[in-house]
Design a protein that fits this description.
The complex is a heterodimer. By secondary structure, chain A is of the alpha+beta class. Chain A has helices spanning about 10-25, 60-65, 80-90, 110-115, 125-140, 165-180, and strands at about 1-5, 35-40, 45-55, 60, 65-70, 70-75, 95-100, 105, 120, 145-150, 155-160. In chain A, the strands form 3 sheets. In chain A, strands 1-2-3-11-10 form a 5-stranded mixed β-sheet, with helices on both faces. Chain A has a 4-stranded antiparallel β-sheet with strand order 5-6-8-7. In chain A, strands 4-9 form a two-stranded antiparallel sheet. The radius of gyration of chain A is 22 Å and the shape is elongated. Chain B is globular and about 55 Å long. In chain B, helix 1 (about 15-25) packs antiparallel against helix 2 (about 50-60) and helix 3 packs across helix 6 (about 185-210). Chain B has helices at about 15-25, 50-60, 90-100, 120-125, 140-150, 185-210, 220-230, 255-260, 270, 290-295, and strands spanning about 1-10, 25-35, 35-45, 60-65, 70-75, 100-105, 130-135, 160, 170-175, 240-245, 245-250, 265, 265-270, 275, 285. Chain B is an alpha/beta fold. In chain B, about 40% of the residues are buried. Chain B is about 35% helix and about 25% strand. In chain B, the strands form 4 sheets. Chain B has a 5-stranded parallel β-sheet with strand order 6-5-7-8-9, covered by helices on one side. The chains are: A alpha+beta, B alpha/beta. At the A-B interface, helix 1 of A face helix 5 of B.
Chain lengths: ~180, ~300
């Protein structure tokens, strides 16, 4: 994930780059982001952040995160355990029982068992934008509460300020991102 | 003037050190005994430092000066949101505690932004109860310059901490901007040391100011007199916090008349101090000057 910050002094630029790296790492979306472009205008108090989404991890199925035994499943990746239980209960109801922290017992016929292994547990695409927006919110200065999304292809771009944002700034932000992110 | 130091050592004969401190007119501010390890915060007249150092040498303990001992400091962030808290205000707070200060933290209600940053009257009153305030502002030079205006009218010594270098502000320390991790590298510890040095400077200025018009009694002495009447409750820590020109008393309302009746020399505490409810916590006891109330003996 590349981060490019422009507009501020050296200290501000370096710090915003570090904060961006740390924030997206904490949110676990670093691998899904190609690059980030941040533009700071401290005098006018306008901030532009633009995130280019890259390759998103593949969806997780029951097969990817469990080990199947004749009448039970053993969870091998506990991160997705709540999603797994919710999916199985929604699909098979009371025939699914969680017998211990990492063990799930089922009463299913063979056809259902095969189908169960291909059920979708978690698709990173589902909440990617939410997590990126959460990251953007953590990076942008807290005082810049007036936000305006800038529609650009393949990018999540947000313009933020403490003052009302007019159309001239929207146009300027679009231009800045187009120029800055391609340089 | 009193010197405040910390002693760390074994329990062997450490009572002798306590007795010596009391004999030379000093005070034990804090005492903690953990199995065979002891830690004491001592305050004693600065001209007696040699005797104390010799005794500590005899006992084989370690000692170090606490330049901020006997002061209560507040660390102020523009908000308590994840942008400004927890790092680096906790790091600064912890470092100042190591230097002997009692520290508190506060997030302003509307301190964020540049043009929109504000400080309410209540916040100002709370800040003015402390011996010094440390404002931790962010990364952007223009915002720090604008926000420094909030602190100008404050009637309390304060320093400003921020990221960029070269700001023409009084008592400004650069190198601490917004952070997402702890300050633990050598150059970061050096920055914290610079923050502590700047706080020491403003505290020292305040102490010298007080020395020109001395207080009727030392806060350390008054603390001891109060503790004779209202002993510290079990499990309670820091019920009486020493400030440069008084004390913060974390006491119940029913204890107030008793406190006012405490004898200090020939006078009652109510004659030499002003006691009022704090906007922050407990009661504030401000000691009047000797010129105002005369000698207590």
């Amino acid at each position: 994930m590349e981060v490019k910050v422009e507009g501020g002094d050296d200290f501000a630029n370096t710090t915003f780059a570090k904060i961006s790296q740390a924030t997206f790492r904490d949110l676990g979306v670093r691998a899904s982001i190609d690059n980030i472009y941040i533009y700071i205008d401290p005098t006018a108090h306008f901030f532009v952040i633009s995130v280019k989404i890259g390759r998103v991890a593949s969806p997780v199925t029951v097969r990817d995160m469990t080990q199947r035994e004749p009448d039970r499943l053993k969870i091998t990746d506990e991160r997705y355990a709540p999603n797994l239980l919710s999916v199985l209960w929604d699909t098979y109801g009371a025939r699914i029982k969680q017998v211990s922290r990492l063990e799930i017992e089922f009463e299913l016929d063979e056809k259902e068992r095969v189908a169960m292994m291909d059920l979708l547990v978690y698709d990173p695409k589902d909440d990617l934008i939410t997590r990126i927006l959460d990251g953007i919110d953590r990076i942008l200065p807290e005082g810049a509460r007036v936000r305006c999304p800038i529609p650009l292809p393949d990018r999540v771009t947000l313009l933020a300020s403490e003052d009302p944002i007019g159309p001239e700034w929207e146009a300027k932000a679009e231009e800045i991102v187009r120029k800055g992110s391609t340089d | 003037m009193y010197e405040i130091m910390m002693f760390e050592g074994g329990v062997y004969k450490f009572n002798e050190l306590k007795e010596l401190v009391e004999d030379i007119g000093g005070f034990i501010l804090q005492e903690s005994v953990m199995q065979t390890e002891t830690m004491l915060h001592l305050a004693f007249p600065e001209e007696e430092e040699r005797i104390i150092r010799d005794k500590i040498k005899d006992l084989g303990g370690k000692f170090r000066k606490l330049p901020l001992g006997g002061s209560e400091i507040i660390i102020v962030a523009p908000s308590l949101g994840k942008h400004h808290a927890v790092d680096p205000i906790c790091d600064i707070s912890e470092y100042l505690r190591r230097k002997g200060a009692i520290t508190n933290m506060m997030g302003l209600a509307r301190g964020v932004g540049k043009r929109i940053a504000q400080m309410t009257v209540e916040e100002r009153e709370v800040l003015e109860e402390f011996d010094a305030a440390v404002f931790v502002f962010g990364n952007i030079k223009e915002c720090i310059e604008e926000k420094s205006g909030l602190c100008e009218s404050l009637d309390v010594p304060h320093i400003i901490v921020g990221g960029p270098q070269g700001l023409a502000l009084e008592h400004y320390v650069a190198g601490v901007g917004r952070r997402t991790d702890r300050m633990r590298r050598t150059h970061e510890i050096d920055t914290l040391e610079r923050v502590a040095a700047e706080v020491e400077e403003v505290i020292e200025e305040r102490r010298l100011e007080i020395e020109e018009d001395p207080l009727a009694a030392s806060p350390l002495f008054i603390k001891e007199m109060i503790e004779m009447v209202i002993p510290q409750k079990a499990g309670e820590e820091f019920s009486l916090i020493i400030q440069i020109d008084g004390l913060r008393l974390n006491i119940e309302e029913e204890d107030v008349p008793m406190i006012k009746d405490v004898s200090v020399g020939k006078k009652k505490l109510s004659e030499i101090c002003e006691l009022e409810k704090s906007r922050y916590k407990g009661y504030l006891l401000k000691i009047k000057t000797e010129a105002e109330v005369g000698s207590i003996y």
